[in-house]
Amino acid sequence: MKRLLAVTLGILTAIGGFVDIGDLVANALVGSRYGFALAWVVPVGVVGICLYAEMCGRVAAISGRPVFDLIRERLGPRLGLANLAASFLVTALTLTAEIGGVALALELATSVNYLLWVPLVGFLVWLVIWRVGFARMEQVFGLAGLLLIVFAVALWKLGPDWGQVLHDASHPALPPGEGLPTYLYYAIALFGAAMTPYEVFFFSSGGVEEHWTRRDVGVARSNVFIGFPLGGVLSLAIMGCTALVFFPLGVGVDTLGQVAMPPAVALGKVGLAIVLVGIFAATFGAALETGLSAGYTVAQYFGWQWGKFVRPLQAARFHGVTLLTIVVGVMVMLTTVDPIKVTEYSIVFSAVALPLTYLPILIVANDPEYMGERVNGRISNTLGTVYLVLVLAASLAAIPLMIATKAGQ
Amino acid sequence: MSGVEPRPAEGRVYDAYLHLLDRQVVDPDGELICKVDDLELELAEDGAAYVRAILTGPAALGPRIGGAAGALMTAVHARLSGGAGPGRIPFHLVADIGSAVTVSARPADLPIRGFEDWVRTTIIDAIPGASDAPE
Amino acid sequence: MGTPLVKRLLAVLLLLAACAGPSFSYRDYERKAAHTADEAASVVGSAMLTVELANGRRATRAYLSVLLGEAESTLGAIQQTFEGVQPPDRHADRLRAELGEHLDGAADVLAALRIEVRRGHVDALAGIAEPLGGLHDALEKLAEEHR
């Protein structure tokens, strides 16, 4: 019974923790501009992240070491350093966006300007990382993030013609006045938002934080194969909501306030309150994860002691890196750069960094020295290779498309 | 290393490149110490090369990375540490070589703690709760 | 770099390029205007949705205040960007005036909405927002015509 409870908790945490500011902005924006014409990208992204998260979880459970730790061993210090640079920078950018997202959510709730919230948010993120135990931190924010189910409820309440929806989703068509390059640009952005690098590194390091053993491979898998797809359903609900509310009027979503509007339209003040708390929890949780991931990647490359499972005194450099990254994130936000723009850049650069992230994972998960007989099976390897090709294509096309479409104008 | 391959009388044969370099070094309790950033080799009279010590830290890693990044790493370390060389763990302390390299000494006893100590004493110590056990 | 002939050719080409200048035709200006009208229509549409929420008492004052404030500043930025573009000829001047009229109208309404919502007069918003429907249609029509 206790085991079942733990598994359920893990799944619920995974669902609630799946959506971050990147997913919120990307799905809402795409829904408002393309209706359901890009809905197919979400399942494609979800399958990819499930595939690789399972590998990362398995690596953590079987070898007792997180995936990023092993990348340097397998790729050597030079490629490992390149990987570190790309992963760290993208993660730091994502952290900055998440801090902005939390501040925006607080602004929507209180009408106090988001810039005033930014330093407080940075401090709180650091404080929770410093003081709150790993498991509790994950559970609280993961479960609170489940409130985003309000998007699904709102979607149902808005009463779409489901037949039409299914048709539009399965027959993607360019809306009038939209060009193919912009469509592809947003497809890549959506894909990058679903498969952000920090997610897999965090999942792997988190497994070590929670002292997973080979018996926990099943737990890791249920989190991934049940939790993540349901998180993907949440993403689609966000897209569906803006597709129903904004798309018919030709209104493009470019603020967090608009992202939160459909639940208010469908469910009134209660819906609005729930969605704002949900957005707060999801982005705050993601800020915690990206903050920790920034520390994980650097510490694991250089071999420093890391983790919340030891006293901070024993992992001084790890905590130092996390603290520094949060401070820099706060400072960037305080330059009054648009948080939504930062979010968009973070997901596009995530797409660019994806091959560097995922190729080493595939290599490590196939290594019998770490995995014993639990190396990748044929399905994992076949699908994994397919996704590597996909990810490489997205990565190569991302920057040219961004330039050509002026970041999606 | 040359083509001479002296086989040891007993024990396993390791490939230094595959099994030693870039490995995590841990203490007997599994605490993380450092990475094997480089190896100090010594040539004996019979021409065979022996590993004398594990080298670690930016001074050891910089040259292996090479290029501009490596040079930067070495230079910054030299500037901040006042010209200290790489951290050194004598090889006789190595107890086991598996997926990680286990060393039979405590992290505090090893002369490789410069940066960690500095960050700890300068920043982390000052923050309340730094010595609290994890939940 | 080449013979005297090549040098002369290069000089001629450079001269031609300098004379033509940043070739900004009426067609380019039209497209900019259409794009601006599209963006402005989007902001106006969003404001209309926001006022609908206020009408149905489906949102808090804080939320409405943030959204309407954002709409106003977004429209202001769009307008400023467009007005910063030099119209290439008299024909463009007319287009500029027409679009400018709609943008000014929308800016006035959004400013009034922002002021009233910050004062807490949520019930008054619907009345103030009445012109938005017409402005939205006018902007979309302009965008269509000049796409």
Keywords:
A: 409 residues, Hydantoin permease, globular, C: 147 residues, mainly alpha, Four Helix Bundle (Hemerythrin (Met), subunit A), 6 helices, 0% strand, elongated
Describe this structure in words.
The complex is a heterotrimer of chains A (409), B (135) and C (147). Chain A is an all-alpha fold. Chain A is built from 17 helices and no strands. Chain A has one domain: Hydantoin permease (Orthogonal Bundle), CATH 1.10.4160. In chain A, helix 3 crosses helix 15 and helix 9 (180-194) crosses helix 15. Chain A is globular. By secondary structure, chain B is α+β, with helices and mostly antiparallel strands. Chain B has one domain (16-126): Roll (SH3 type barrels), CATH 2.30.30.240. Helices cover 27% and strands 24% of the residues of chain B. Chain B is built from four helices and seven strands, in the order αββββααβββα. Chain B has helices at 16-20, 58-65, 67-81, 114-122; strands at residues 24-26, 32-35, 38-43, 49-56, 87-90, 94-97, 101-103. In chain B, the strands form two sheets. Chain B has a four-stranded mixed sheet with strand order 2-1-7-6, with no helix packed on it. Chain B has a three-stranded antiparallel sheet with strand order 3-4-5. In chain B, strand 3 (38-43) and strand 4 form a beta hairpin. In chain B, helix 2 packs antiparallel against helix 3 (67-81). Chain B is globular, with a radius of gyration of 17 Å. Chain B starts with 15 loop residues before the first helix and ends in a 13-residue tail after the last helix. The model of chain B has no long low-confidence stretch (mean pLDDT 80). By secondary structure, chain C is mostly helical. Chain C has a single domain (28-82, 89-145), classed as Four Helix Bundle (Hemerythrin (Met), subunit A), CATH 1.20.120.660. Chain C is built from six helices and no strands. In chain C, helix 4 (90-118) runs antiparallel to helix 6 (131-145). Chain A binds chain B through residues 63, 65, 69, 72-73, 76-78, 80-81, 130-136, 302-306, 308-314, 316-317, 319-320, 323, 369-370, and chain B through 22-25, 31-35, 37, 56, 61, 64-67, 69, 99-100, 107, 115-117, 119-120, 123-125, 127, 129-135.
